[in-house]
Design goal:
Elements: H1 4-9, E1 15-18, E2 27-30, H2 32-35, E3 40-43, H3 46-66, H4 74-107
Antiparallel strand pairs: 1-2, 2-3
Length: about 110
Amino acid sequence: MKDIDYYMSLPYALKVQELSEADGGGLLLSIPLLGEAAVNAHGATYLEAREKLERLKRDFLEIWIEANVNIPEPQDDIQGIANVIEEARKAKGWLEEARSRALQAAEA
């Protein structure tokens, strides 16, 4: 079973937003794959925001693990991209085969 240490060690992508003074200044960090609106933290500096985000991420992960929630993992995104690339390769192969057949039929 995957535990908190496993999920905390995964390389989740971070979104970093610099906030205007009107919005309080500083930085807003979030983890889109885990829910950008829920898993986010604000800080005056990157380090402050990152420390808050890591604590919040741990809290959410512990709750989700206990509730048996399916927690997305970064490689899920990578696998999705790999699937799209594979489908594009297949489509390219089908198009090349159809083109070849059309050329053969035109020559006959």
